[in-house]
Amino acid sequence: MTETQTTAEAVxxxxxxxxxxxxxxxxxxxxxxxxxxxxGVNLAIGEGEIVALVGESGCGKTTLARTLLGLERPTSGEVxxxxxxxxxxxxxxxxxxxxxxxxLQDPTGxxxxxxxxxxxxxxxxxxxxxxxxxxxxSKALSHAGLRPPDRFFLRYPxxxxxxxxxxxxxxxxxxLNPKVLIADEPVASLDASVRGEILAxxxxxxxxxxxxxxxxxxxxxxxxxxxxxxxxxxxxxxVESGPVEQVLTAPRHPYTQALxxxxxxxxxxxxxxxxxxxxTRIPGGCRFHARCQVLASGKAAEAGVHTRCRTExxxxxxxxxxxxxxxxxxxTTTP
Length: 335
Known about the structure:
The protein is an alpha/beta fold. It is built from 14 helices and eleven strands. Helix 5 crosses helix 6. InterPro entries: AAA+_ATPase (IPR003593), ABC_transp_ATP-bind (IPR050319), ABC_transporter-like_ATP-bd (IPR003439), ABC_transporter-like_CS (IPR017871), Oligopep_ABC_C (IPR013563), P-loop_NTPase (IPR027417).
């Protein structure tokens, strides 16, 4: 498969695919050059599945999430929901966003301080003209763990704890009865004592409501605790993916290994040199090669792949449920 070849074939997952990116590219103009923020991504989220999208800041995670939400239009490739390509008319997007909802990382910034909890949660149903507004708000607050719901109707964000505010944000998404949540760093702004509660809530929503979720995070520990599958992103592309236990207990890509090494239980710390490259100047060969500890140590040379690492572009990974890594060295060590 060449670097630009897409997986146009149906994606095989253990669950029916609900939301999918196919050979997705998103570019922006930057100082007269084109920044390849998303540079060929295939990703599938199955029904009732939680997928964690992991990587450093600036790797393209948020741009990919915004594109899956229909907030950015792809330069090429497509987003598909329930088997159908996403179209970008106002009517189609409005219908789509009832099914795919965003949960932001900062509940304080997400909530209007002048709106009560009831008004915040009722905003979506009002925009979409849904009947039985109070019933929808009550059910959404209950599902989000704010019970009894009417006790919270007239409260304002400043009267709530950080965890309660995040639950209100989640309730605002649930009020539209979506099928997919896209959660961008959903617990990053919360105290450690509250993080587990919100993660447990997301798991309960998956179990009780059959919700699917894409959880965008830089935290592999979070991914371990919540996800069924994990996709590791570097410089606009997924470089490793698969079942969370398999990827995080035996990471094959050197970048994933480096990310894992910062966890407390890791036996060896890997310190990456330099910063992620400029997305307007993606290096040739493996896009990670300039920072790769395996290449720097001479192991890639011993395996006879060091020249390929520096010069030969890797294929775009397909959206399959099996563990996979875009790495020439990993290919030599696969049993």
